[in-house]
Amino acid sequence: MSLADERIARLERQVEILLAKTEEQAARIEQQAARIAVLEAENVELRRRLGENSSNSSRPPSTDAPKDRATRSSGRPSGKKRGAQPGHKGSKRSLLPPGKVDSITNHHPTHCRRCARGLPKQHDADPVRHQVWDIPAIKALVAEHRLFHATCEVCGETTCATLPDGVPQGAFGPGVLALATMLVADGHMSRRKVVRLLRDVFGIEISLGALSESEAIVSAAVAPAVEEARVHALAEKVKHVDATTWYQSGAYMALWVMATATVTVFTIATDGTREKLRTWITRVRGVLVTDRGTQFGFWAMKMRQICWAHLIRKFASFAERNGRVGEIGRELLFWTRHIIHMYHRVRDGTLPRAALQRASIKIRVHVERLLEEGRDLSIKGVTGSCRDILEHRAAMWRFVDDPAVEPTNNHGERELRSLVTWRKCSFGTQSERGNAFAANLKSVIQTCRKQQRNVLAYLRDAVQAALHRESAPSLLRPTRPTP
């Protein structure tokens, strides 16, 4: 082989090696490009999650960062000083009428403020009235019951007297039981703090075990009234239902609330599935106001109202994206805020409902068109959400025609808030008995507050009724004026 042929062969081998390396590099670049695309998508998703707060997701406000809370609560600084502004109408305590005052002490001036001469006592038809509220020294009442023995003259058997109805078997009466359990359930105080407070304020010595037994007694006393309220709520025309997490000994549970205009009822279940919910909501009647959870699928869509507050948060998350999705989100927010603003005017009596109904026809067309466009974009986090919202379209607009239906489930969410606060303070419960206590007591507290009834008085009456083997006072109507 000549030198030229050898050189050509060597160059051909080099070219083959270069071609192989080029193909290998091209394949590697292709793999890296695919990997970069995946990482970019993950980066976008992580940035989206990092930007989530209570205004654009289902996260609770308590999880918001301080900057998000400041923006949500105050918005842009107004430049005004804190506190009441000039022209603000002040408020002051109203004086009680003389008939409701426990004591009246008259004070007369002793000398003239100008010349210092002595002054006689004179009757003043319009004296300056100054009332001072105070709490007297509190002392618990201790009643002793003596059970005597008697021996039968015929058979010689000795019998001891028994406690009559109305006297508790334990050491604490209805007032102590009601107050102790209310401090735990409504004050969200730890049980050790309740023990200290009862000792320091009332001189009552109670152990943690006795306090736990007291909770069981009060929970059992109000349970029939809570069940009556649940049955009543099922028959109501409009029901707000919502759920959140609960913990029993660290395990996840589901906390459910059903709120109507007159009652609020809670339950704690092992899970939030449709099957478990059906064991509590046993009657399908009226309008159900909820989110878009699949567990509500047993309720006819035309008899539901899905929460527009949830929709607003979802549309806000769309609006924060780039491209066409962001444009769709901003347009959806525009139409949503427009329809909600009109609803508020109807609720306040400044706009006839017929005007809302006419406007909703046009707004509904725009909203559903935008959702259909979002559904067809095939974008993760957008397509599925738009499809699911469209599947609930029959439940989006009921508030337009029915004056009894609200467009949001804020009522149910507000009722849940107190138990969420309790959960965060106590980390949930430790037993089924604790679950029943939390659900029953909160049902009583929220219902009484809704009806402007005295919670402590109701609990005391319920325990007293149980001691006399009577039914607890109904939660459906006040049994006596609030003290």
General description of the model:
The chain is an alpha/beta fold and about 475 residues long. Among the domains are: about 225-305 and about 410-450, 2-Layer Sandwich (Nucleotidyltransferase, domain 5), CATH 3.30.420; about 310-400, no CATH class. Helix content is about 50%, strand content about 10%. It is built from 14 helices and seven strands. The chain has helices spanning about 5-50, 65-75, 175-185, 190-200, 210-235, 275-280, 310-320, 325-350, 355-375, 385-390, 400, 410-425, 430-450, 455-465, and strands at about 150, 160, 240-250, 250-260, 265-270, 285-290, 305. The protein has a five-stranded mixed β-sheet with strand order 5-4-3-6-7. A two-stranded antiparallel sheet has the order 1-2. It is extended and about 140 Å long. The N and C termini lie far apart (about 120 Å). The model is unreliable at about 480-483 (pLDDT under 50).
Question: What is the topological layout?
Answer:
Layout: H1 3-50, H2 66-74, E1 149-151, E2 158-160, H3 174-185, H4 191-202, H5 208-235, E3 238-248, E4 251-259, E5 264-269, H6 274-278, E6 287-290, E7 304-306, H7 308-319, H8 323-348, H9 353-375, H10 383-391, H11 398-401, H12 410-426, H13 432-450, H14 455-467
Parallel strand pairs: 3-6, 6-7
Antiparallel strand pairs: 1-2, 3-4, 4-5
Helix pairs in contact: 3-5, 3-14, 5-13, 5-14, 7-8, 8-9, 9-10
Characteristics of this structure?
483 residues; alpha/beta; Nucleotidyltransferase, domain 5; five-stranded mixed β-sheet; two-stranded antiparallel sheet; extended
